[in-house]
Design goal:
The complex is a heterodimer of chains A (about 170) and B (about 750). Chain A is built from three helices and nine strands. By secondary structure, chain A is α+β, with helices and mostly antiparallel strands. The chains are: A alpha+beta (about 170), B alpha+beta (about 750).
Chain lengths: ~170, ~750
């Protein structure tokens, strides 16, 4: 049986408080520029535009270790950080790192000259999703609360959905 | 606590599928250790649906310069393909048939391994992008848990078998082709006679001759349902069609092939293709070239000779006793649509997205997917809609949409409202606004221009113009391919485009070649006319111009094909001449980047495509299998499972022996006695297997073990046999090399 530290795939979303009226396509050249400028750590690969989709993944900066996207799932715009490749780390370290990197990406986007005050994010209450269905909600809940004290489970009654939490974060 | 997917799904996975996936997992491990050749691994993963993607060669132009992408490890998963680069998984959906549960699982997979999107392809498959190769075994396991295999989705194999999505409910069909499409898929999947192709092989079924739905004429092999004068079922069988860079129309192989001959004839055709098809020149390796070179009569003669010597197989006809197994049962009773209030948008949607079934009181509903994409949430919501209204009757379509069958007319308004709630109530299915496109430069290594970017732009503009309500042009089809390989099926559309590149004063500019007047109907009867290469940014103007001209100048009742033929290439080229001009770079830089991609356009991001797979001979493939079995034997030995290690090492030797025997005797029965006997006769007695120094020593290892039999394995014997198996396999490789050298030396 695997343990919680084997859980490597974690998503963190920082919700927008301003900027829902920005045409999603505007994010494409910005994220393309981030690749040119190596604006984020790690290996950045490409930009994928899914802004044609209803409440979809929006515009994604595809990386090797993680993706960063301007995401519109459930009709709520935000910056989504999506850890995807395994690393030698505990679940707690990884969860904390995901929150930190999501906040960093949101800040970078907010401050980008392309948006000049048109974009803002609520950095106090990100959403964390355990993106791995081999772990049950109870075990995920314990692990997340240990990693990020104050985390609150906000999962859905629909058992098909992943374990989801609101966590406290200092900007 | 968590469990692995292997543990969780053990009870609900077909053992054969489970074993297949374990084999692939071992191959990944061997590749990581450098113990499996990269070409063989590439073909192995392609035959499991694991495809490469753009930039997996580690190079990407960022709009200013080419950057190297550091994926970490130096390991590759194919020639010039970084092991850790994200890839695409293609999920075969035979005849497009999906269940609600399968859609739920796809939603989960897209979230955990991909970017949350399921994409419907022009061959009724589902594709997901940006997946790591190490995630693919669990990905496959979870699909296997709901009865789906990705096996042979790509590579030099029989690809997804497509069929008209209205099969079983169509008002015009001769009979429901669903059970036949399913039977041929099951029969040919992993069949020994389909493992040695030089290229892919695509099969399609249609219930009728006249409509477009099956697109038989453009396939390697196609079957159109027929009944003879006595009411006996059969098929008009076609062979040798194909799009690609050079489209060929399929030829009639047999105007009436009785149903019981469908599977054996497909097997015979496969054998001839494997034996006589081109393997060195990949550009000419499709069966269409073989049929064209031989002529259909000579090809047919060869196939019939093969058919005559095929060993009988009960599987050829067993399924005919149970054709009703695929009959769908409606979830709800048929009832007419009453006078319920119609929400805004419903009438327009009903006009284009509803198809009355031949079964009174039921309709099929087309759910239009933007660019063929559905989010994970939408997949679950659509699964719930299916559960609510119609059960497991969903089909993916070649128009990149979903079709929900057996919806009671009385439920159509509620169905529409449910689609509105999830953002999938767009009207215009199968009209000019329903533009089809392959992935193109978004993710394909071969993409030249942005097919999806252009499709999105055209769809948006045509919707703004209300083109779907324009009675003159709304029935036209627009299809776009990112390059000449035709994955977007541009040849058979009224208005088609494929990506090309032009150099304008030293700069690359994305263009599309304009193809007009293809015939979609009559099962994709004929191909369009190439007219001109136009800069990508002027393509919307091309569409406006040709549709306006058709509206203004057509004669009474003249179809678009007839109109294009009447105008002719010279006139059409003149029509677009001004649009072919590219403004100077400083005058309008927008022409120097493509739709949906603000980077300055470059041609340099193209890589080596994997559609052609890797040509690996059957014997090399099987010897690689033997290697894998020998590796597994060594693992079992380490785990002190001596009896199992002994059995696996023996199996490895049998596999290697069989690989050699099949170079002379294709139909050697797959049992130890037959294999060993044939090996002894053909390779030992003839000394063909003999090594210059060791003579027949390594063959002796196989004979000894075969005589010893099972049940006598002690740790020492097991250890010895594992080593002997490896030596036997090495000797088999050496024998194969000697045989290949002899062939190469022989005069032509």
């Amino acid at each position: 049986m695997s343990n919680i530290d084997d859980i490597q795939k974690i998503d963190v979303k920082i919700f927008a408080t301003k900027g829902e009226d920005i045409n999603p396509y505007e994010f494409v050249p910005v994220l393309q520029r981030w690749i040119q400028e190596h604006a984020l750590p790690g290996t950045l690969i490409d930009v994928a535009d899914y802004s044609h989709m209803h409440q979809g993944p929006g515009v994604i900066l595809v990386g090797h270790e993680y993706n960063v996207s301007v995401d519109y799932a459930d009709g709520k715009m935000g910056v989504l950080f999506h850890y995807k490749r395994p690393a030698e780390s505990t679940f707690a370290d990884r969860a904390q790192s995901a929150v930190k990197q999501a906040l960093n990406a949101a800040k970078l986007l907010e401050e980008d000259t392309a948006f000049k005050g048109r974009l803002a994010f609520d950095t106090s209450n990100p959403q964390l999703i355990v993106n791995d269905r081999t772990i049950d909600a109870a075990a995920a809940s314990d692990a997340v609360k240990n990693a990020l004290p104050g985390a609150v489970y906000v999962g859905s009654d629909d058992l098909r959905h992943r374990a989801s939490f609101r966590v406290s974060a200092k900007a | 606590m968590s469990t692995t997917w292997k543990e969780r799904l053990a009870d609900r996975t077909d053992p054969e599928l489970a074993r297949e996936i374990e084999i692939f997992e071992t191959q990944i491990e061997l590749r990581k250790r450098g113990e499996l050749d990269e070409k063989i691994f590439a073909e192995q993963r392609l035959r499991r649906g694991a495809y490469g993607q753009r930039y997996d060669n580690g190079q990407r132009h960022d709009g200013i310069q080419t950057q190297t992408i550091d994926y970490g490890r130096d390991t590759t998963k194919g020639p010039d393909t970084a092991f850790d680069a994200p890839g695409m998984m293609r999920i075969k959906v035979p005849f497009g048939g999906l269940t609600a549960e399968q859609m739920d699982v796809m939603a989960d997979l897209s979230e955990e391994y991909s970017v949350g999107v399921s994409h419907v392809t022009t061959r009724q498959d589902i594709q997901m992008h940006y997946i790591h190769i190490e995630d693919t075994p669990d990905y496959m396991r979870r699909l296997a848990g709901v009865g789906i295999t990705t096996r042979e989705a790509c590579g030099n194999s029989v690809r997804n078998v497509t069929a008209c999505p209205y099969a079983g409910i169509c008002t015009d069909e001769t009979f429901d082709v669903t059970p036949y499409a399913n039977a041929i898929m099951e029969f040919l999947l992993g069949h020994p006679d389909t493992q040695d192709f030089g290229r892919k092989f695509k099969i399609a079924f249609s219930g009728c001759q006249h409509h477009a739905c099956g697109l038989v004429i453009m396939h390697d092999m196609g079957a159109v349902a027929k009944v003879d004068a006595d009411g006996k079922r059969g098929f008009a069988l076609y062979v040798g069609g194909g799009l690609g860079a050079v489209p060929h129309e399929a030829k009639v192989f047999d105007p009436f092939l009785p149903e019981e001959e469908l599977l054996p004839m497909a097997q015979a055709i496969s054998r001839v293709f494997a034996r006589l098809g081109e393997k060195k020149n990949r550009a000419r390796a499709r069966i269409k070239f073989l049929v064209a070179n031989m002529g259909i009569e000579a090809f047919k003669e060869e196939v019939l000779k093969e058919r005559a010597i095929l060993p009988h197989d009960d599987n050829w006809t067993a399924y005919l006793n149970d054709l009703d197994a695929h009959t769908e049962t409606p979830k709800k009773p048929a009832a007419a649509l009453n006078g319920a209030a119609r929400p805004e948008g419903f009438d327009a949607w009903q006009k284009t997205n509803i198809y009355p079934q031949r079964q009174q009181g039921y309709v099929a509903v087309v759910v239009s997917l933007p660019l063929g994409d559905a989010t994970a949430t939408q997949m679950r919501q659509l699964a719930d809609i299916a559960r609510k209204y119609c059960g497991d009757t969903i089909r993916a379509t070649v128009d990149q949409n979903f079709l929900f069958r057996w919806v009671s007319e009385a439920d159509v308004i509620d169905f529409y409202n449910d689609l509105t709630a999830i953002g999938l109530d767009a009207p215009g299915a199968k009209t000019i606004v329903d533009v089809t496109a392959c992935p193109g430069t978004d993710s394909c290594k071969l993409g030249i221009s942005s097919s999806r970017g252009l499709a999105a732009e055209l769809s948006k503009r045509l919707n703004e113009q209300n083109a779907m309500f324009d009675e003159v042009i709304n029935g036209l089809h627009i299809k776009i391919s990112g390059c000449f390989n035709s994955c977007g099926q541009h040849h058979i559309s009224d208005i088609g485009f494929y990506g090309v590149n032009r150099n304008v004063k030293g700069r690359s500019v994305p263009h599309f070649q304009v193809i007009l007047g293809g015939q979609w109907t009559e099962n994709a009867k004929s191909y369009g006319l190439a007219v001109a290469a136009i800069p990508s940014k002027n393509i919307p103007a091309v569409v406006d111009r040709v549709t306006n001209r058709y509206r203004d100048d057509r004669t009474d009742g003249e179809s678009f094909q007839e109109f294009i033929t009447r105008l002719g290439k010279r006139e059409l080229k003149a029509m677009f001449e001004d649009l072919a001009q590219v403004p100077d770079y400083d005058a309008d830089r927008s022409f120097y980047s493509d739709w949906g991609d603000p980077r300055e356009y470059t041609h340099g991001d193209r890589g080596k495509g994997e559609c052609a797979g890797e040509v690996v001979s059957l014997v090399d493939f099987t010897l690689a299998e033997a290697e894998r079995e020998a590796f597994e034997a060594s693992i079992l030995l380490d785990e002190k499972k001596f009896a199992d290690a002994d059995a696996m090492a023996y199996q490895a030797m049998l596999s290697a022996a069989r690989a050699l025997v099949r170079t002379q005797f294709l139909d050697v029965p797959d049992n130890p006695d037959s294999i060993v006997a044939e090996f002894r006769k053909r390779f030992y007695d003839t000394q063909l297997f003999f090594d210059r120094f060791a003579q027949g020593k390594f063959a002796g290892y196989l004979f000894s073990r075969h005589e010893r039999g099972n049940g006598n394995a002690n740790p020492e014997a097991a250890r010895q046999l594992v080593e002997e198996a490896q030596l036997f396999i090495e000797a088999s490789h050496a024998c194969q090399t000697r045989m290949a050298d002899e062939i190469n030396k022989a005069p032509a």
